[in-house]
């Protein structure tokens, strides 16, 4: 009830069953810890509620498949809240890749990291693998893996290393992942709680490259085949979640197609599963 009072929410519940059984509620946003996503999504589906679920989709891709099946069987929509798909510059990057602005995409390089200590915060649950599913690969890595799947297509092969370089945690503090996509494009991804550097993304092609020095700022750079750099500013919405939520409502109303349905949101979960398995078994893993 504290949040209800703080944000002026007209209706709140002391038990989740009250929400499921409220006939006035058409859709829910599941933003509980990762370990509860599958249970809450499937229960919402059984009660006829459309679901927008936080990322990563679930503790593993197998649970994600069950979530997709439950929503399909009960005739409700399932969206995964990878809100960065709605950043104007990410949509422009995807458009340019598909239009051949950099020729054929050959290699991508991405880093999502920060010097982060969650131990004494309300997000300490991120350090409990039974609740979060893993460390930075699950938390921030899922975002960048989703963006790579969004722009480059379905992943085919994964190789990874994980470890605890600075922080002795029950989850990894650093992960490095190599991914090959169906197009043949390769990508390297670094996700860490123990490195400075922010969140960069570069995609190199046969006729140029696309660069984001920060995924969060409005700047997108296109370097053409002649080496000339073109700089564009495409600001995101002041509230990064609003475009995603508005579009999900339009999906429910039959006016639009949501950019990250469950069938696509699961792609990054498959890569993460494969990455953890690759790190443990020290070999390539197919996420398909």
Write structural notes for this entry:
With 288 residues, the chain is of the alpha/beta class. It has 2 domains: 2-80, Rossmann fold (3-Layer(aba) Sandwich), CATH 3.40.50; 83-281, Dihydrodipicolinate Reductase, domain 2 (2-Layer Sandwich), CATH 3.30.360.10. 34% of the residues lie in helices and 23% in strands. It contains 10 helices and 11 strands. Strand 10 and strand 11 (229-233) form a beta hairpin. The longest helix has 20 residues, at 262-281. One of its GO terms (molecular function) is nucleotide binding. InterPro entries: Gfo/Idh/MocA-like_OxRdtase_N, Gfo/Idh/MocA_Oxidoreductase, GFO_IDH_MocA-like_dom, NAD(P)-bd_dom_sf. It comes from Paenibacillus rigui. Residues 4-81 form the Gfo/Idh/MocA-like oxidoreductase N-terminal domain.
Task: Offer a few descriptive terms.
288 residues; alpha/beta; Rossmann fold; Dihydrodipicolinate Reductase, domain 2; 2 domains; 3-stranded parallel β-sheet; globular
């Amino acid at each position: 009830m504290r949040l209800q009072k703080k944000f002026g929410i007209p209706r709140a519940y002391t038990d989740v069953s009250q929400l499921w059984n409220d006939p006035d509620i058409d859709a829910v946003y599941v933003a509980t810890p990762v370990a509860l996503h599958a249970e809450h999504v499937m229960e919402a589906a059984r009660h006829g509620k459309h679901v927008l679920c936080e990322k990563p989709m679930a503790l593993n891709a197998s649970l994600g498949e069950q979530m997709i099946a439950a929503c399909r069987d009960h005739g409700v929509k399932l969206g995964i809240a990878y809100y960065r798909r709605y950043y104007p510059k990410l949509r422009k990057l995807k458009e340019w890749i598909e239009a051949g602005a950099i020729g054929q995409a050959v290699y991508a390089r991405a880093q999502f990291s920060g010097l982060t200590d969650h131990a004494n915060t309300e997000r300490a649950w991120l350090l409990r693998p039974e609740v979060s599913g893993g460390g930075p690969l699950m938390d921030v890595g899922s975002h960048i893996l989703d963006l790579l799947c969004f722009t480059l297509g379905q992943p085919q092969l994964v190789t990874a290393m994980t470890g605890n370089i600075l922080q002795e945690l029950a989850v990894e503090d650093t992960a490095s992942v190599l991914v090959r996509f169906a197009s043949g494009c390769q990508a390297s991804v670094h996700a860490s709680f123990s490195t400075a550097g922010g969140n960069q993304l570069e995609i190199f092609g046969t006729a140029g490259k696309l660069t984001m020095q920060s995924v969060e700022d409005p700047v997108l750079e296109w370097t053409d085949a002649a080496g000339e750099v073109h700089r564009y500013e495409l600001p995101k919405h002041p509230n990064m979640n609003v475009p995603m939520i508005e579009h999900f409502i339009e999906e429910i109303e039959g006016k639009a197609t949501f950019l990250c349905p469950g069938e696509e949101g699961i792609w990054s979960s498959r890569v993460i599963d494969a990455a953890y398995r690759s790190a443990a078994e020290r070999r390539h893993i197919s996420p398909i």
